[in-house]
Known about the structure:
The chain has six helices and no strands. It is mostly helical. It has one domain. Helix 1 packs parallel to helix 6 and helix 3 packs antiparallel against helix 6 (165-179).
Amino acid sequence: MRPIDTVRIRALPGVFAVALTLGSLSGCAQQAATDIQRRAEPFTAARAQAVDAVVSARHLLPSASLVQFQSCYTDVQAKANAYAGYLVALVSDGTYDDATNTTLSQQLGAAIGAFDDCELKLQRADATAQPSPLPVLSADWVGAFSTSVTQYWLRDQKRMQSLSPTEKYDLTRKLNAALMFPDFDQIQS
Length: 189
């Protein structure tokens, strides 16, 4: 029988602790990414509503009204994408600015309100409009969402900063796909 190498046995707890630490850090980073995506759900829901509104408008509005509707959509798209770009930058470069968060969220809320007004005016102006109305976007979520972004940053920024470059890349790619409003012409009916 060969004697047991006591140096190797003493090193095992340290190796095990390092493996557990790396595993928990990886788990924390994955949890942070999942949490960020979950918190973005109100934004992604608004994006889906906007896409649905465009699809419906293409079926319900005459050509002249559709051109005006496209202009209204382009404004809400620009405001949403500015805010989405800011949120993606939070993940990629880790810089938070409360004034920017507040300003962009207020601009998005106002743009959603203007979009809804535009939809309603176009429907009222069209005497041939079918009885099913265009979907209206809700802006009720925007203020609470902005507050949650601030709270998350103040409380959990270290978790976000614990993401590896690959995890940040993957998360920013997913957030871009989920949050960015598509161009009007890219939306298929």
